[in-house]
Write a structure and sequence with these properties.
The protein is α+β, with helices and mostly antiparallel strands and about 200 residues long. It contains 3 helices and 11 strands. It comes from Bradyrhizobium betae.
Length: about 200
């Protein structure tokens, strides 16, 4: 079985495997624009044709440190660029340096081409508000359980609730903090959304 091996880190090219089967998704920054090859399809988007970029932090169970860039084109089309690559059935490898260099260089080339793309970071505002509302309800419920455990003298239960709340806050807190909706400029790419 031959494993996918990423090309050496370069600011002008990047590749990753989105799944175990199938070819790698390959991207290259050329003088003409962003060249891409995904699942047997390919294209070239001029830098001034790119209408939007959304950066986000998207951890998954196999890789807790995963970032994503969604690139949209005026007239339709969207491609996703991920900071991790599948290596085996049990291994998803980070490609932090290559992803960061490629995304920063993409922004630099778009700025040089005079792009007017919409640059956003994090989740959409409605999705983020729904996440905050869910967390508020969960906090109220956990506080109620903690108070109940303390009132009946169930110290082990109270300690469990506190431990679970601390672990949950640590795991989810980073996701919520990094994915706060915001706009940014070409020369100020959010560092929290780059590996």
């Amino acid at each position: 079985m031959q494993l996918f091996e990423a090309r050496p880190a370069s600011a002008t090219s990047y590749a990753y495997k989105a799944s175990l089967i199938g070819a790698a998704h390959r991207f290259e920054l050329t003088d003409e624009g962003l060249s891409w090859h995904i699942a047997g399809r390919s294209g070239l988007w001029r830098y001034d044709e790119i209408s939007a970029i959304r950066l986000s932090f998207r951890p998954v169970s196999m890789q807790q440190h995963r970032f994503r860039a969604d690139v949209g084109r005026s007239g339709g089309g969207r491609i996703a660029i991920l900071s991790t690559s599948w290596q085996t059935a049990a291994l998803m490898a980070p490609q932090d340096n290559g992803f960061r260099a490629f995304i920063v260089e993409l922004h630099a080339r778009m700025a040089k081409a005079g792009s007017h793309a919409t640059l956003t970071a994090g989740l959409g505002r409605k999705t983020y508000a729904a996440v905050l509302a869910f967390l508020a309800v969960l906090t109220v419920a956990m506080t109620g359980l903690l108070i109940r455990a303390l009132m009946i003298g169930e110290l082990a239960g109270a300690l469990f609730i506190l431990g679970f709340a601390a672990l949950f806050a640590w795991q989810v807190g980073g996701f919520v903090r990094r994915n706060q909706p915001q706009s940014y400029s070409f020369d100020d790419v959010p560092k929290a959304l780059l590996p």
